[in-house]
Amino acid sequence: MRPAAMRAEFGIAAAVAAITGAMVLLDPAPATPWRHLYLAPVIVGGLRRGPTGGLLAALAAVLAYAPVVLLDVERAGLGTQAGEAVVTVILLLGAGALSGTLAAQADHQRHRYETLVAVQQTLALDVPLEHAVKRLHACLARRLPGATVGLAVRDGERLVVAGAARVTPGSVGAAVLVSGAARYVADVGGAARPRRAFVVPLVAGTTTVGVLAVERLTDIGTAERTALLALGAHVGLALENARLAALQRRFADDLADKVAAATRHLAEADRMKSEFVAVASHELRTPLTALQGFSELLVARAFTADEVRRIGDIIRSETERLARIVSDLLDLSRLERGMTPALRRARVAVDGAITGALALFTRTTHRFEVDCAEPLPAVDADPDAVDRILKNLVSNAIKYSPPGSCVRVRARPAAGGVEVAVEDEGDGIAAEELTRVFEPYYRTPGATRAVPGAGLGLAVVKALVDAHGGSVSAESGPQRGTRMAFVLPAAS
Amino acid sequence: MRALEVPEPGVRQPLFPWSSVAALSALGVVFAAVAWLPGEGRSAGVPVRVGALVLGHGALLATALEWARPPGAGRAGPPVVVGALAVAAVTAAVLPFGALAFGVVPAALWWAARRLGFRAVGLGVPVPRGAVALGAGLGALLGAHVMVTATMTVGYPVRVRATRELLEWLCYDAGASVLAMECFFRGALFDRAQRRWSFAAAAALSAAGNVARVLVDPLRPRTVEVTAGAVFYIVLLSVTSCWLFHRTGSLVPGLAGALVFFLAYRLLMPEAG
């Protein structure tokens, strides 16, 4: 017991003794006015120690007053004075109980509001649910002295528990969690003294989001149970609010991340399109310039037949290049509008398609190595599309590998189709860039500076292969060259 | 946190098992029979006094032990304790200083309670010395008060007794009367009730039972003032003992308080005779 409380109780006992002494010395009669002084220590006892304190102080006063009364009853019988004494006894006991009850109620009310504020402050912090429950448990354990507090809060399918190791099926807590109805147990057992337990649901709306369990060795009265029920409802609501606030914060953070990513993506797309316009203009102007120059030469000068054939070859080559660029642009345009490239499927012999595609690249210093497995099934594909796929891949291999190096084209039967791979001996592509090479307009940072191009070729390859129901892949690594492969379905 | 971690027990034992109702009924019949004997109970013959003592206190002790018996435990405790009580009662009736034999009853109770795991009758748990002192102090306070009130009002002077007589009463209280009341009304009845109801309800039941037990006691003088005083002080003493038992889980503080109070009460009793 605290020294202050002990001082108060000694003071009450001393006051009762002093009043009795004064009464005995000055006016030892049951109806003496001195008896009213007992009210002072009785009310003080009630105010300081609640109903128990008030009643104990009243009992002490009654015990001290009794000999005076009994002596008078013995002398004069049950007269008016005895009646007054009975009234005095009732008054003292009533005053003790009433003052104690009122003081206890006021104290409980104050304590309840302080607890609610503390709970609110605890759950206002932006912390994960586990931390929030632990903090809440610590807060409630502080606010409910002499009691053991346990908390279990639902978090999806699992339970976050504080103050206990777990919630065992069949326990009072588990029953409350299922039923949503509070339970009072006069003794949960396991001790020489009975342990009272009161388990209340933590309610948010119509949902039980958890339970609050309070255990202690002394009684948990009706008023306290009502207060704990209110606390459970409040904690449930506060937990739900905290959960919703956390969800809202997470949603806002996610949204901000997505907006930032979209903004970055748009900026990148804008940059790539600007770059594309510049590059595409350059790419289109190069063959046009050649066509314009050679056609003017043919008009202005007389050439030998061999020279005319050579110039004709150049004009044809540049025209094909121009046509390829325009086709790529058209395909990409269809792709961006959500349309697939138009295909005219037929049986296509892959080895023949490879030979035909390589025939375009006669003016390069690269060596070509073709390796086709025997027998190689034909594929079910658009011959023009296959040609464009192969030319794009071989063209890329030539552009991104050193002059004089070897470009290998291999064809193998694959599951349900034929795999064609084009390998070069270039610098390779970094892993983080490899995932983006099939995006339209995307060009690796190194390629942007060193090699002309619009960033369309691989995007068109992917679109065409996808339209056939095939797949395309890229493997590369620094100084390991690049291997671009696609699979087309075999013809039945 | 047992409310969350431990499954609830399936079926709870009733407050009054039928076996104990029979024993308590026997106690009531015995006390009633002795009370109807000519004169007062103490003037009855030795066999009747011994029989009433053994059956009355023995029924309380045996019931307390029976209630505390865990399922499957042996049933040797009650017969041993009642047997010890019978031996002590006979010895006290026939031998000078024979009342000292009541000392074997607490020993037998200790043995029986140990076999049952002690705790169920409030024995064998750590005994807080402060609570024992508080119990003795409260017993002394009530004892002093009853002495003052009795001598001032109803003309019961405090009598200076021979040490032998006081010692005999003390042995009787410690080995039979007070021991049986505390064991049954606190260690058994109150303990079972407080595990079902609030402290106030359990203490009220225990105090009411204890008052009833004192009111049917054939040794109590049949006067209005003694009856009123018995009700008043036994209620206070019972509530005090219940509170001490509730706070400590031990029977010893309440036992100390009751022994001190009854020692004071014995000083007020008329000479035996």
Description:
The complex is a heterodimer of chains A (492) and B (273). Chain A has 492 residues and is of the alpha+beta class. Chain A has helices at 3-26, 39-76, 80-123, 129-143, 172-179, 222-300, 305-336, 350-358, 383-399, 431-434, 445-450, 457-467, and strands at residues 148-155, 158-162, 183-185, 196-204, 207-216, 346-348, 367-372, 379-381, 406-414, 417-423, 471-476, 482-489. Chain B has one domain (15-268). In chain B, helix 3 runs antiparallel to helix 4 (77-94) and helix 7 (163-194) runs antiparallel to helix 8. Chain B contains ten helices and no strands. Chains A and B meet through helix 2, strand 1, helix 5 and strand 5 of A and helix 1, helix 6 and helix 9 of B.
List the helices and strands and how they pair.
The complex is a heterodimer of chains A (492) and B (273).
Chain A: H1 3-26, H2 39-76, H3 80-123, H4 129-143, E1 148-155, E2 158-162, H5 172-179, E3 183-185, E4 196-204, E5 207-216, H6 222-300, H7 305-336, E6 346-348, H8 350-358, E7 367-372, E8 379-381, H9 383-399, E9 406-414, E10 417-423, H10 431-434, H11 445-450, H12 457-467, E11 471-476, E12 482-489
Parallel strand pairs in A: 7-9
Antiparallel strand pairs in A: 1-2, 1-5, 3-4, 4-5, 6-8, 9-10, 10-12, 11-12
Chain B: H1 2-5, H2 18-35, H3 46-68, H4 77-94, H5 104-116, H6 129-154, H7 163-194, H8 199-215, H9 224-248, H10 252-268
Helix pairs in contact in B: 2-3, 3-4, 3-7, 4-5, 6-9, 6-10, 7-8, 7-9, 7-10, 8-9, 9-10
